[in-house]
Amino acid sequence: MKKRFLALILAAIMTAASLAGCASKSGSSKSTETGATTSAVEQTTGTQTPAEEKTEEAKETFPVTVTDQLGREVTIEKEPQKLVSGYYISTSIVIALDLEDKLVGVEAKAGKRAIYKLAAEDIVNLPSVGTAKEFDLEGCASLSPDLVIVPAKLKDKISSMEELGLTVIAVNPEDNDLLKEAIELIGKATGQTAKADDLVKTMDKGISSLKDRLGSETAPSVYLAGNSSVLETAGAKMYQNTLIENAGGVNAAAEIEDTYWAEVSYEQILKWDPDYIILAADAGYTVDDVLKDTNLADCKAVKNGNVYIVPSDTEALDSPVPAGYLGSYYIASVIHSDIISEEDFQTEAVNFYEKFYGFTPYKN
């Protein structure tokens, strides 16, 4: 009788252990696969709480018809299993939607993008399909992708791609609304609608939280200098203008109507006399270069030492990628440092990248 009783106890223990093992496997996520755990700093800023992250996985029923950002209606017959992304922004979106394992080809110079090495290092070894200027049509077709995602700049090449039997969607994320539209487009086209919705909501919540904290603070003027020269800047119609405004600043160059980086003179910068000069993340010159530029010696930002550069540790946070809204957090930590600290910026970045890219930035 005693032996039988002991056997029953042993069986119960083994069953409980087995159930615990199953639970630990089913709880894995992109973050835990890379060894990252939920950060203790989740308590602040705008990223979603664990309860909000439990979004029900809504799956698209294929075929689906989408309208891309060139206004083209495209029907995707089956859920794509092989993807080609010819644009670094769409590639970053693909990774955020947990689709990196489906990529079979990417844009040129992928090895130079830190985000790929941090979040999906195998991408850098994938075949290149070239650039918007020199897209490799035949090379792309040889990869037999189910779906090709290209920048709108390649609109004249799309008919040739379709003649090769390729299904193509074009994206044009040139401002914040278009970026969110591109995320939703790619999500629907790949059957990842729920993840795309979660990503967009996280971005919106982050900016909303930032704006709430800034309230009605006085907005200092910010001159955002381009990658090539301090004499390049972004006007009101560029994505970077949104970054400045969301950070509680005023774009010193808002009067410029160009839709691309505009060239200006030293005299014009001195006339604007910005409170802050912030260099683009990929600037080919340094903060020290600007501070020592005698042509800008009388500029308020230079006189007060208020010259900074947007971080690029993970990716250029002044570009229209999913993490681009973090650029506003960084700028706010510079121009409103009494309200938004550098730690606040890093906290938001840690929460975002752990959730959508599976790694932890700013470990040190």
Radius of gyration (Å): 24 Å
Main sheet: strand order: 4-3-5-6
Terminal CA distance: 60 Å
pLDDT average, as an integer? 88
User: How many separate domains?
Assistant: 2
Q: Show unreliable segments.
A: 1-29, 31-44, 49-56
Total of DSSP H or I helical runs spanning 4+ residues? 15
Spatial shape: globular
CATH topology category name of the largest domain: Rossmann fold
**CATH homologous superfamily placement of the largest domain:** Nitrogenase molybdenum iron protein domain
Structural class: alpha/beta
CATH architecture of the largest domain: 3-Layer(aba) Sandwich
The string of secondary-structure elements, in order, is HHHEEEHEHHEHEHHEEHEEHEHHEHH
Write the layout of secondary structure elements.
Layout: H1 2-26, H2 30-33, H3 50-53, E1 64-67, E2 73-76, E3 83-85, H4 88-96, E4 103-106, H5 114-119, H6 137-142, E5 147-151, H7 158-163, E6 168-171, H8 176-190, H9 193-214, E7 221-225, E8 232-233, H10 239-246, E9 250-251, E10 262-263, H11 266-272, E11 276-279, H12 287-291, H13 300-303, E12 307-309, H14 326-335, H15 342-357
Parallel strand pairs: 3-4, 3-5, 5-6, 7-9, 7-11, 11-12
Antiparallel strand pairs: 1-2, 8-10
Helix pairs in contact: 8-9, 10-14, 14-15
